[in-house]
Amino acid sequence: MREYKAVPLGYAAADVAALGDARPALRDFPTPLVTLSESAVAHNLATMAEWCRTAGVGLAPHGKTTMSRELWQRQLDAGAWGITVATPWQASVALGWGVPRVLLANALVQPAALRALAPDTDRLTVWADSLRGVEIMTESLAGLDLPEPLAVLVELGAPGGRTGARTADEAVAIARAVAASPVLRLAGVAGYEGALAHDGRPESLATVRGYLQALGELHDGFEAEGLYAAGAPAIITAGGSAYFDLVAEVLAPRRDLDGSGGRVVDVLLRSGAYITHDDGFYSVITPLGRVGGGEFRSAIHGWATVVSRPEPGLALVDAGKRDFPYDEGMPVPQAIRALGAASGIPLDGAVVTAMNDQHTFVRLPSHARVEVGDVIRFGLSHPCTTFDKWRALAVVDDALAAEPHVTGLLETAFG
Question: In what residue span(s) does the D-serine dehydratase-like domain sit (predicted)?
């Protein structure tokens, strides 16, 4: 298993397979290391499922966060409608893994990819935000034997946002083109509010609410104009991990799973980071901190060994940008385990000031006792750029336990 940096040197496939029974102590594993805490993952899955039930929305979690077949299946088992992905390759992985419904939250405008995914149009839904995109899809799929027309959601954007039609009139024109295509089916509306705000200030929340109201009104306009096919279901989807409470507040009233209003309509969140949460960006901005309904727990932690104490107040550890995320905040030192010790103690007052490819600079308070060979546990920020650095993560029973034990290895698929 040399290709997995998460396992002890010399481990063979049989050793990895036996982790669940052997439950070795985490202190026997090499660093740098990122662990996944099973107790926190189980808690987060249950918390999000209950929140969605109470709020009256569905969930199609973004799979790009983890690219883990095991975690995707656990999300589906917890009631998720399907899995969201961002690229044609990710869609092919999800379809190949047997995910029953795959939502590609992006425009699919590569002819070769369209033809490759054509056999699975009965499980795939994509986005469109331009007339040219509709033309490409129609031309690429023409003449193919499709299980059914490809479901397309029209994406509404906003000035200063990311992708998406910038006005309702543009979005309606795109919807008309989709509805007129012989190989496409207008399936609803989509958007992403997370690009419009980055905090919980009242003005930020107002911006998000206004955008979501426009998204709902766009769906209403499609219905009023008769652009949806008779009897066909529709989807309204928005919601990253920062404002899913507002999505439920504004859009959940349009959900109609039994079609009593004339059409089956589902409202789907696409939040993905909840499954692991973090100790940085999402811990601050999570909607559960604003509206209640439980709490998420950080399931990802970094572990690194002190390899140098070159000057007073400075420790260098053996993990860097190749191992820990840094795009949404530096890792946060939380605890230290002395060489040979079974458990750690809090490391208050320490701070990360810089990172290199394979080293992190930790500035220490004067009272800290830190020696070469000690191991520091770090809180991490941004799960998406944590998982993509690891082909496998060590799963522990509880990263915050006095002595965590490894119970398995979680493999990921990143191209």
Answer: 299-397
Q: Among all chains, which residue has been given the structure tokens 């379809």?
A: 95
In this structure, are residues 284 and 384 in contact, taking their beta carbons and an 8 Å threshold?
no
202-225 vs 244-251: helix crossing angle, rounded to 10: 40
Which domain, by its residues, includes 400?
Answer: 13-38+295-411
Please name the amino acid found at residue 164.
Answer: G
pLDDT in tens, 17-28: 999 999 999 999
Q: Is residue 180 part of a domain?
A: yes
Q: Is residue 279 part of a domain?
A: no
| Residues written for the chain | 415
How far apart, in whole angstroms, are the C-alpha atoms of residue 386 and residue 234?
A: 34
**206 and 302 fall within a common domain:** no
What residues pair up with 401 in beta bridges, in sequence order?
A: none
Residue 10 CA, chain-centre distance (Å), reads 33
The reported pLDDT for the residue numbered 293 is 75
Distance of alpha carbon 62 from its chain centroid, rounded? 5
What is the rounded CA–CA span in Å between residue 248 and residue 239? 9
For the question of whether the overall pTM of this predicted structure is more than 0.85, the answer is yes
Q: CB of 186 within 8 A of CB of 155?
A: no
If phi > 0 it is left, if psi is from -120 to 50 it is alpha, else beta; for residue 261 that is alpha
Residues 6+ apart with CB under 8 A from 264: 233, 234, 256, 257, 258
